[in-house]
Amino acid sequence: MYKKRLSPEEKIHFIEKYKRGEGSYASIAADAGVDSRSFRQWVRNYDACGPDVFFKRHHQRYSVEFKETAIHDYLSGVDSQDAICRKYGLRSRRQLQDWIMKYNSHEELKPSGTGGSTIVTKGRKTTFDERVSIVEDCIANGRDYALTAEKFDVSYQQVYTWVRKYDQKGIEGLKDGRGRRKPESEMNELERLRYENRMQKAQLLQKQMEIDFLKKLEELERR
Q1: What is the tens place of the pLDDT at every residue in 56-78?
Q2: Where are the domains of the chain?
Q3: DSSP 172
Q4: Is 53 helix (H, G, I), strand (E, B) or coil?
Q5: What confidence category does residue 134 fall into, taking pLDDT thresholds of 50, 70 and 90?
Q6: From CA 42, how far away is CA 171, in angstroms rounded?
Q7: Which residue numbers delimit the Insertion element IS150 protein InsJ-like helix-turn-helix domain (predicted)?
Q8: How far is CA 75 from the centre of its chain?
Q9: What is the pTM of this model?
């Protein structure tokens, strides 16, 4: 008979026991008093968001655009479900699968509160230079929004929005639209070219990462 609830510390204890190779999913799940499917999900959550995922219980809202981006990444073969969950800070594959199922059934995707990772945190004010650096870093690291948000102490949604604006409008899309920052609105051509050059270098790094990944994949397939 399974236990109803384990503390965060207990869950982490059993997960780390598994990661040290001290048992299989089934054997450690039995020790923990839970079914193996639940234990597998704990491990996925731990891998995606770290041990803090078991302590935080904030309910987050995801926009329709956010959901569609994650769905399209999967349907276009960009990544596996597990990799997409890690990339977008989702706590489980079930969450992503529900979105995919609704999308494939032509149901309307709506903004919804979820039990998502607290990677989606409250945003903060940023300067134009900061936004450029954040987008540059995100692109250079394979558009890992969650990693970039954590690194720069901004919200996931902010990173996602800024990268999207850059994709649509270039450097101009990262300006503060409220027009309160004079240096942003008066950026000269030389400054704009310098910023664009930084972004191009970041995109080249991203492409190189993709090439390296494909080479490794080919090597594994030849074995």
Answers
A1: 555 567 777 788 888 888 887 87
A2: 8-54, 60-114, 128-222
A3: G
A4: helix
A5: very high
A6: 40
A7: 10-59, 67-105, 130-182
A8: 17
A9: 0.41
